[in-house]
Amino acid sequence: xxxxPTKAYAAAGVDIDLGNRVKAGLPRLLAATRRAxxxxxxxxxxxxxxxxxxKYREPVLVASVDGVGTKLKLAFxxxxxxxxxxxxxxxxxxxxxxxxxxxxxFLDYLGTGKLEPRVFAAIIRGFAKACAENHxxxxxxxxxxxxxxxxxxxxxVSGTIVGVVExxxxxxxxxxxxxxxxLGLASSGLHTNGYSLARRILFEQMRLTPKSYLPxxxxxxxxxxxxxxxxxxxxxxxLLRRFNPPSSARNQAPSIRAFAHITGGGFIDNIPRVLPxxxxxxxxxxxxxxPPIFRLLQEAGRVPDREAYQVFNMxxxxxxxxxxxxxxxxxxFVRRRGHRAWCIGEVxxxxxxxxxx
Amino acid sequence: xxxxPTKAYAAAGVDIDLGNRVKAGLPRLLAATRRAxxxxxxxxxxxxxxxxxxKYREPVLVASVDGVGTKLKLAFxxxxxxxxxxxxxxxxxxxxxxxxxxxxxFLDYLGTGKLEPRVFAAIIRGFAKACAENHxxxxxxxxxxxxxxxxxxxxxVSGTIVGVVExxxxxxxxxxxxxxxxLGLASSGLHTNGYSLARRILFEQMRLTPKSYLPxxxxxxxxxxxxxxxxxxxxxxxLLRRFNPPSSARNQAPSIRAFAHITGGGFIDNIPRVLPxxxxxxxxxxxxxxPPIFRLLQEAGRVPDREAYQVFNMxxxxxxxxxxxxxxxxxxFVRRRGHRAWCIGEVxxxxxxxxxx
Lengths: 357, 357
Known about the structure:
The structure is a homodimer.
Chain A: H1 7-11, H2 16-23, H3 26-31, E1 38-39, E2 47-50, E3 59-67, H4 71-78, H5 84-97, E4 102-112, H6 117-133, E5 137-145, E6 155-166, E7 181-186, H7 195-205, E8 213-214, E9 219-220, H8 221-226, H9 233-243, E10 256-261, H10 266-270, E11 279-283, H11 292-300, H12 305-311, E12 316-322, H13 327-336, E13 341-349, E14 353-356
Parallel strand pairs in A: 4-5, 11-14
Antiparallel strand pairs in A: 1-2, 3-6, 4-6, 7-12, 7-13, 8-9, 10-12, 11-13
Helix pairs in contact in A: 5-6
């Protein structure tokens, strides 16, 4: 008996053959993300990565999983699917870079009702592009056809990244002390947070559409909201090499004390993750230019200040907490690499938490 | 300004405070999955795992991502949410065990419209239970509240596992040769595949409900379909230690040539993944007891034989390809550990593929 894909399963909404055909284009896309360590090819039961143990005395694997939330609704509305994968990969890379880790590999999950080859290819292109930019191998993925789960044309994506850091160089915030300065790196927009609230304000309350052009944004709402989540990984690795060199004295506190990725929970929930007990942070909101989209959202949505800084990044995608005497050098380093950055606050003695003044 | 969760975001359907409260119960659950290597705690930007490099000459990380497909619809219908996590972890563990790897850690993704604390806790309990059983640390997760994405009471889950294997002991099927025997390990039911077709046959064509009791199953449809995906990981690791010991001569072919996890794509798509060119497999379907649920599905759904073996596992959840002279010893080993198993076929010279006769 020779077995070929047949009809009953397809009638139930799952097309194995279509799935296989769609996946046939994968190897070429994934090859672009190949890096030292990758073994074999996607298509087996698992992705393989040989860790170069000679490079590490005590390698610590750092793993993080994330999604892009309801930013996806914008991708659906604009039928633009090749930036979502970039958002997700950059988000994940940022999350592990905060701990000092460099990415090794990434795996994606795509849940959908019916697989559309064109959309699938665009999504995977986004993953592959951002993986290549971050020197991260795309070694696996799962595409689930789940009839009756997702609305037509819709899907959900999640991704898991694994990176590595030498144990001694793990950034844990323990070196933070009162007087350290808080630097903010510019975001490109909402990144991947606050979309449910933003959509409610813009599309329900203001009755705009993704195609609406707003002069104050010099952009359409859709394009503004779809801006790709900035990947700070290579910049952060550069900062750590330059300011926390492995050669520095063993018990010397690192100049870069910690990073905090400003994602869901904004300043309020993310900065405390890296603060030691008895250290608080004061953020001075007049120190940077809050981009027009955030001003618009806050004003039109009458979002109280305190909530705005918990839901949105307000123009700051990544925070670095640094020794005061290195702050100017760090800012210079960051700006020379094309990122905008400001000194936005300081560490103070007190309850662990964030005050925005 | 002190910042507390407020109302606009909640009105948009996202409740950060609820999310934080729900997550407050996590540390206790995750502690049960703690194993050597885990550093720190969940709550940072990434999960940490120190790889014990002294244990490996050339450690290869093996990673796999999966979901549970539309089996979730059964969980929704029966309001039973604590087995889904077990299905997913066991599925992932099996996928990497096939390559000879033992699990290190797991991360879950949960996408949902509105977070229900009771359901969330049940799902995570399932993840934690199966992780503990598989000696796998649950080191991270993401729960996305996505209003307007999922139907009320519904959610999707995916999970990523990372394991490790010594490079020399990676099982790649290269040792497979004509005359090897194919052993089949019993599944507990559909595991996590073929649910869209099964639901169509049982609930649409036959108009049964999950509560329908069928004498031939001695069970309700719902309970039958929710049976937990068998985790073969510990058994497979035991088999490899016993039959492919590290001490065996370097160039000697391993007695256990390969495993194939019978998941989506059934026998037809999964077994060829491990076959070398010019090797085919013949499966003799009279050699094991096809469980009543599969007979029911095939008969009621008039599913052609050729399709049944591509959509369903037909009672075989894992296949081992072994040297003929070790087959009886392997079967004995497996049965002594409480698994049912049969010799179900053999490797033949010919086109890479599977014939079911």
